[in-house]
Amino acid sequence: MKRRDFLATSALAVGAVGLNGCYREEKQDNKKSININRGKTIKLKLATSWPAHFPIMGTGVDDFARRCGELSGGSLEIKVHAKNILVPALQVFDTTSLAQIDVFHSGVYYWKGKNSAFSIFGGMPLGLTSEEMITWLKFGGGMELWRELYGKFNLYPLIGGTTGPQMGGWFKKEISSLADLKGLKMRIPGLGGEVMKKLGVNPVLLPPGEIFTSLERGTIDATEWVGPALDSMMGFAKAANYYYTGWHEPGSILEITFNKNRWEKLSSEHQAIITAVSEEMTSNMLHEFRYKNAKALQELPKSVEIKTFPKDMMDAAKIALQEVLERESSKSNDFKRVLESYNQFATLNKPWDDISTKNFLDIRG
Ligand code: CA
Description:
By secondary structure, the chain is an alpha/beta fold. The chain has a domain at 4-163 and 251-293: 3-Layer(aba) Sandwich (D-Maltodextrin-Binding Protein, domain 2), CATH 3.40.190.170. 49% of the residues lie in helices and 15% in strands. It has helices at residues 3-20, 57-71, 92-97, 118-122, 130-139, 142-151, 190-198, 208-217, 228-234, 260-265, 268-298, 311-331, 333-364; strands at 26-28, 31-33, 42-48, 76-81, 103-107, 155-162, 169-171, 185-187, 202-204, 222-223, 242-244, 253-259, 305-307. It has a 6-stranded mixed β-sheet, with helices on one face. Strands 4-3-5-12-6 form a 5-stranded mixed β-sheet. Helix 2 (57-71) runs antiparallel to helix 11 (268-298), helix 6 (142-151) packs antiparallel against helix 13 (333-364) and helix 9 (228-234) packs across helix 11. Bound molecules: calcium ion. The site of calcium ion has 5 residues, from loops.
């Protein structure tokens, strides 16, 4: 918007507020114009699935709220509520859908019970990396599908960060072959858990606060979490010696999701600011995870052995994943459509990735 237009529409906006005493948008010449309402602060309630100021994910949301305030000259005031303050960690989807809160920050794979297709937007075992996921969502049609399907819940999602590659998890005993998995109890959610179940594992869900004690006491035999930076804070190295490299969460996507009506009532300027800051948040989180994981890896106790899962297990995991995807596709047309879009991008991406990134990393050694 040109400055002169902005000043003109701002004057209109002030007039509108003066007349109605409330926030509204104006449309002029088919252009959506207006309006940061001078003197009128838009307050939004944001709830997260994380403890207050939780490293990287939680502090990323704190920064998001602060930056929206800075860039809007204080006209956007987003108050962050840690998990269980306004709503329980895993009810942020429902309460935002019902407009009891305005916006939430969480992990997409938590909502596969709402629609199995949502698990694909959160990332796929043995699938796309964070960088590739973002490319699919932004340029390969993923975001359109995500917004269409979330729209049925009156929600409007934005990418709200990504973890980069996650580790395969902590095991109390070494896994030398597929047979060693039989009967193990492991904390592992999402599609990774579905695959593990087919490999003979008993996947369990535990709240984060109970994982360490369960592992230490042997109530569970293994757990995945994120990567060295966050896993170190959980103290898993004190309860298990074998730390396996990742396969099931190569690029998990987090979300900053608005109540759709609330989003549509925001001015185009506020929408633009929020969209830009969500991009900043995504980039920062990916790079912060990379740096802190690299650092934390160097600081793991000597007792920890880094291992890669045996080939027969990964071969079986690939087959099991295909079975899970076929089963889910046959049960849900949404899952089938999203998977088709995802696969279309993965097929397009692979030859280029093979001769660029993968080839280069092999050469660099
Ligand atoms: Ca994880």
